[in-house]
Amino acid sequence: MGPKFTSASEPGRGYHDIGGLDYGEVDPTITEVAPWEKLSIAIGNSMGGQGRKVINTDMGRRAREGMGEEMYNELAYFERTTESMKITLIEQGLFTEEELEERMQDIAKRISEVRGL
Amino acid sequence: MTNETEKQEPDHGHSHGDLDADAHALEHIHDHDRQFQPDLEDTPPTRYELMVYAIRELLIEKGHVTQEEITKARNTLESWQPSRGAEIVARAWTDPDFKKRLLTDGNEAMADFGVDAGGAKLTVLENTDEVQNVVVCTLCSCYPRAVLGLPPDWYRSKAYRARVVVEPRKVLKEFGTEIPDEVTVRVHDSLADLRYLVIPKRPAGTEDWSQEQLAEIVTRDSMVGVTNPKAL
User: Of A7, A10, A65, B53, which one is least surrounded by beta carbons within 10 A?
Assistant: First the structure.
């Protein structure tokens, strides 16, 4: 574990702007990208520059850089990119936060029913 | 790698029937994306996994995108492999005119290989006896995906992003790469609109190798600049 980022205490530096800060050794472990993570990328690409052009890379970055330091550091990489995609799609008016939360609960219910969880 | 995993017969106590039932209940959850991890199959999906499924259903239902478009994007994603970058490097090693085009305008030259960088500029950097180029994205994880696939964990890691710009020799040592003092290490920070590909130094002892043989020793990490290819 590396030290907690100090970016919030440095004027003018965003919490994502970590180049040059202290951190521990680079962990060379490679993990397989999970199917849902690939799906997240595919949805983003089909809505983005290589697809419908409703969202773009800059919007995603702006969302990540505006989600707050706590959330940014707490979420795993693909959680963060999914969260920022969600933010931009809601901003574009494609669905609402409420619709999404409701649908997530509905899918959780469907999955638990078929898996007997 | 994913494909190999997906091709394996499930051998974890679940029959195909369970997966089929899941598919039926989640009709939008396409086969390809529904390869539940054996170890995780008995645990509920995480919040963000659910969010991805929910985003897909809502976008499709509201007509903002089609399943076909998502599937196409998913297939494109699978087609992005470091082997493509390796073929490009091997050609640059054996074809001076191509290398010149590559260094002048990466997008133009890589179009020969069907590479579409999606609007981002592809800049190609050549390692020499004097210079070792290393690529990072300190702000996020910008990476030439169309030629190298998805960035590996370490490239996205905060440790790499934070440290490689200030102590590149030390970071490269952690990858087992020793750079002699007389060689300049040049670190390039990527942007959403600007991605880099490194042409590593062609190792000695490969003078009479074919392009195909050469491509086999060009690794992903060497095209990011953190390792150097070796003649096998």
Answer: A10
